[in-house]
Amino acid sequence: MAESAETKPQVNASTIREAIDEVLKSGSIAALITVVHSDQLMVGAKLLVFADQRTIGDLGDAALNRAVAAAAEKFLQSRAEAGMSPVGEIGPDLNDLATTLVLFERIEGEPHLVVAGAGHVGASLARLAATLGYQVTLIDDRAEFVARDLFNSPPGQQINLITARGWAEAVRDSAGSGRGVSIAIVTRGHKQDEDCLRAALAANADYLGVIGSKRRTNIVLDKLRAEGFAEEQLRKVRAPIGLDLGAISPEEVALAILAEIVAERRGGAGGSLSRWRRE
């Protein structure tokens, strides 16, 4: 078995687990590659590739380590959760290992949705997102709107409820690094929207949307533009928020918002899957 030039050849499973734990705690992302079938390499050998291309572990061949590290970057960009590939498709020059199969797995914390505003739409959105497995933080400056007895979620679907003393501070603290985070701003007024949006733009979240009519959102965006926010930043704001489902009820609006968040996370277009039959 060839010794890797980039990684230590003898990295035990606990080292990999500790590295994965660190990725999850830091809100970062990585790809775990595992040999699942091979006549030449040890089945179960693992290589963890960080977003910055650092690696921990060893698949048993230095050239293979380099090839899968390069492939891991494309895998993470694809937003897929997992994928199997023969080495022949990853590294055409690795003829001796062409039939070896490796499994790519995304290592990333559970998606986090921060909902600013616990009115009818915000509360419905928080409940729906928790049902889909999102880590949810619901913020409002009115304590009675984020009372625990209003959100008795099933086990494993706990909603983190925050009574905000300041909207911007609460959004900033909840968003953290912004990686894996979606922020939906569904407050009751322009002032609250502006405070939340300033903090959300700084967080660089994966998804950022603001509820309201085109007129209301343009007022807010124009004001932030005048304050010096870059046009590139403002273009990332989904406003009005959500997909066009013709939603009317708070629950339907929440569905439209979450549908757009899922589409952004998974790389979906948000259109009808059957459209091709009618074109």
Q: Could you describe the 3D structure shown?
A:
With 279 residues, this protein is an alpha/beta fold. The protein folds into two domains: 13-108, no CATH class; 112-266, Rossmann fold (3-Layer(aba) Sandwich), CATH 3.40.50. Helix content is 39%, strand content 20%. The chain is built from ten helices and eleven strands. It has a six-stranded parallel sheet, sandwiched between helices. Strands 3-2-1-5-4 form a five-stranded antiparallel sheet. The N and C termini lie far apart (55 Å). The model is unreliable at 1-10 (pLDDT under 50).
What keyword list fits this structure?
alpha/beta; Rossmann fold; six-stranded parallel β-sheet; five-stranded antiparallel β-sheet; disordered N terminus; 10 helices; 2 domains
Brief summary:
With 279 residues, this protein is an alpha/beta fold. It contains ten helices and eleven strands.
Mean pLDDT: 88
Report the CATH topology name of the largest domain. Answer: Rossmann fold
The description of the largest β-sheet is:
6 strands, parallel
CATH class of the largest domain: Alpha Beta
Number of domains: 2
Poorly predicted runs are 1-10
Query: Which word captures the global form?
Result: elongated
Report helical residue fraction.
25-40%
Taking all Cα atoms into account, the compactness measure Rg is 22 Å
In quaternary terms, these chains amount to single chain
CATH A-level architecture of the largest domain: 3-Layer(aba) Sandwich
Let me know the number of strands: 11
- Structural class of the helix and strand makeup? alpha/beta
**Strand arrangement, major sheet:** 8-7-6-9-10-11
Number of helices: 10
Strand proportion? 15-25%
The run of helices and strands is HEEEHEHEEHEEHEHEHHEHH
CATH superfamily of the largest domain: NAD(P)-binding Rossmann-like Domain
- Roughly how many Å apart are the termini? 55 Å
